[in-house]
Amino acid sequence: MSQSRLTYDAFAKIAPLAQQSLIAMGRQADDSGIDKQIIELVKLRVSQLNNCAFCLQIHLNVSRKLGVPQEKLDLVATWEEAGIFSERECAALAWAETLTRLVGYSVPDQAYEAVRRHFSEEEVTFLSVSIATINAWNRLGAAFRFAPPIQRTARAATK
After folding, report:
1. Binning pLDDT at 50, 70 and 90, where does residue 1 land?
2. Which of 29, 36, 70, 109 is the most buried (most CB within 10 A)?
3. Burial label, 158 (beta-carbon count in 10 A; 0-12, 13-18, 19+)
4. CA count, 13 A, side-chain hemisphere, 55
């Protein structure tokens, strides 16, 4: 089991403007009018790709509060094969994967055209902001090994 290098609370204390800026970016995307369940599915998938347990746990908790069906939470890692996601959800998840897996690649026109078939230009803008924001959070969570919220609660209960 890996140890946290820096707690989320310590990060917020050391870099409050960075923390507040990322929260503001996420909030603007969340308030854009795109279905909040789609935004959370995207955050879950990106967090899976980036191996960020902290963000994955947070967005599983949020998804459950929003009423995302358990089947979708269980199968978001295999969304292409699952057959339970809407075309709009699939377009958002494909776009999220494209923007997350950029190393050595540019974003193909086909990927942009595919997401635009299901989202307006404004929606693609905010969907992209949401994806960029969760990628930034994932990188911070991975760098510092922020403990998932469930672990912090469990650790506190055992002390």
Report:
1. low
2. 29
3. exposed
4. 28
